[in-house]
Amino acid sequence: MSVNHDEEYLVALRTWINASFERAAELARGPLEPRPCPVCGSPQVGHLFNNGNLDYSRCEACDHVFMNPWFGHRPVDYSGHDKLMNQFFEIMQRYRTRPFEERQANAGRDRRISFLRRHVPDGARLLDVGCSTGDFLDLAALFYEVSGLEPNEKTWAIASRRHAVHHGYVEDLPRDQVFDVVTLNQILYGIKDPAAFIQALVPRMRSGGRLYINTPNADSWAVRLFGGRANHFEGFAAMNVFTPGSLQRLMRNAGLRLVTLETEWLDVYLPDLFEWLDNPSAFIHKRNVQRPDYIQDMKDQDGFLAKWNEPEFLHERGNYLVALFEKP
Ligand SMILES: [Zn+2]
Q1: Which residue ranges of the chain lie beneath pLDDT 50?
Q2: Distance from C-alpha of 113 to C-alpha of 125, rounded to nearest angstrom
Q3: Of the candidates 175, 161, 107, which has an alpha carbon nearest to the alpha carbon of residue 131?
Q4: Which secondary structure element, helix H or strand E, spans residue 66, and what is its range?
Q5: Residue-level pLDDT at 49
Q6: What is the pLDDT of residues 270-284, one digit of tens each?
Q7: Could you tell me the distance, in angstroms and rounded to a whole number, from the CA of residue 45 to the centre of ligand 1?
Q8: Which residues surround ligand 1, an ion (CB under 5 A)?
Q9: What pLDDT is attached to residue 3?
Q10: What is the CATH number of the domain that holds 308?
């Protein structure tokens, strides 16, 4: 992924990630409960790795990767009352890379939008679940009839200035609303019970309607290399990190059929690799701004990757899963 190269932003984010490690350490002191696979229910799970504080398992039946044991009785609070979570949204707001008008002017080149437009005709009714401050809706609104759903009252207040955004969870949506396409941008990994969540979403899709997923990939090259220190496992928020197999299993169980699944972003940088080898205790994936010349070296690699036609084997294990499913 082309990273935001603003030094102040990287320092603020690194500081926040270190605070999230402290929260993870506090949660790891317990109590914690073991759990079966949240996708297929199988109790046959093996220890995969530790993220510095918390353990992750891999399901032997469906390949799913998930936090285990976990603090399920104390789920992460996305409602806007958790100070640490609010600090994250504040950093994201403060260091937005480009102004609204510029982002809209380039909407057609956004990877999420161009993917959707290959599969969903313009004018469709779109619901973005967990829309946060509405950045994706700003772009999608140029092509679709959009609405959002957001539980955090602070980010909801920002998004609802520009779009029709429901405050709350899937069960809070008006009963009579169904959509041509539902989008889940980087939210599935944080959801406590993904099977129940998808089951609740399906009635909100029309027959023939589509579900777009963009979520961390547990089978990426970056995860193979950095294990529990890869960005997807930082801190305490990653409850479920899907593989191509477990994502398809989740959707099949909810009665949805696969349209297409691909991966994107290599997310393996040489400056990160050097820090990983030189100073592993300070390593934070894509945030090693303490390293001399880090920002310039990351920019150089991004510039190289933008021009380079990545070979097929790199594409197959990108750091994010991008998939589309259909309701029969
Ligand atoms: Zn499973």
Answers
A1: 1-2
A2: 14
A3: 161
A4: strand 65-67
A5: 98
A6: 999 999 999 999 999
A7: 8
A8: 37, 39-40, 42, 59, 61-62, 64
A9: 58
A10: 3.40.50.150
